[in-house]
Amino acid sequence: MTASIELDWLKKWDLYSPKNIAIKDGETGRELSYAQLFEMANRGSQYLRGTFGISKGDRVAVLATNELEYVILFFALQRLGAIMVPVNFRLTQREVDHIITDSAPKLVICQEAFIGILEKLPTSVKAEKLLLQGPHSFAEEILKASAEVYPFVPEETDPVMILYTSGTTGSPKGAILTHKMIFWNSINTTFRLNISQTDCTVSFLPFFHTGGWNVLTTPFIHRGAKVVILKKFDAEQILLLSEKEKATILFGVPTTMDMMVRSPLFAKSDLSSIRYSIVGGEPMPIELIKVWDKKGIPIRQGYGLTEFGPSVFSLNEEDALRKIGSIGFPNFYVEAKVVDNEGHELGADEIGELVLKGPACMQGYWHNEKATKETIKDGWLYTGDLVRRDSEGYYYVVGRKKEMFISGGENVYPVELEQVLRACPGVLEVAVIGVPDEKWGEVGKAFIVRQHESVLTQHLLDHCLQNLAKFKIPKHFIFLDALPKGDSGKILKRKLQELA
Description:
alpha/beta, 4-stranded mixed β-sheet, ligase activity
């Protein structure tokens, strides 16, 4: 193993702070200390190796909600040098079939609730199957396995996880995350968020999402801190647990942060232990930032993606209002550039594609050399996100490269339109896409969730006329009860394209 970085985190914390709590189930109250997590990971390694022959490079797919056994499994597979493939159980059977077939796991582990998905897998899938919990399951059988320390097998460049992207263009692609990538993402997160052993967070993002593992969970465990996990987002439960567990860092997207504010418990909750909340996904509305700031919790806007980090950018909390909408600066071991279509670096306030370089970059896409070469060029990862950098060096996401539309020969960036519309009184949520238009080529179509029915199209048009050039103003306004969202709370524009 390369000696430059330490990968066997649990072994170290078993020595340094064995009694400290590593992971806790927020619903049941079950918890594991670092000593217990280390022991169970070793038992898991012994069981998986002895019963299924799992070894270095083998894939193990998982369909499960956030459970303590899921975390044990991750570290058990890590010791073996095997590769975890978390599968989104909310996908259609066709999408799950693609992921399982593409990753070709030796073993598929699932909760009983998802057995139906396994039973419908193609006959070409030869993987063995195992329940995560219940009789004769992973949870039960590892208790019978040897607790002897299993040697730590992998090296830093070995894959530890394959995370499949949402597949907005074609079939989902499997991003290969290495031990090195997760290590350096943890270092970047620790440096920028000042994580220490005394920190605690309540995490609701699912483990089939990079946010579930790598926004805070793996950095916190690397640092010897405490993670309280939930199976799903529940505003009241997060507020209650944050107070009870004295959480120090909160994570959310603007939607979840707004839902917590709207909970009757928000005003009553003692959240004084939280030093700030980190927010990703999209810019947080200024009024919502002010509500949290008044509660004593500054907002740190950030940016990341499955293929890099995901701890890539962070805005210092003191700049939350002065630099509204900014994702801040690149984190410690991240190089960033803004480039044009030819790859030439652009100057201040010029809009171009964000490209990244650093040790927290994925290895590539699983069995997809074409997509890998299109994404990673000369060591730089092309994100597909359009950004600008202001004269002070602060970065702003303008939109997805493929979301930008051209109206009457002018480039229009949906994010700008969304920020303006979100500031209109009575607007709760908004998403803008480009749609075909006979006269202008493309025009904007805005999907609005309003606070009350008195918010009419004319109000929105008047607001836009005061704040946007005419060619940018959406030509269509559609009112919805709710915007379609993914598991992290991020708006799914591909679903809106289907409605258009």
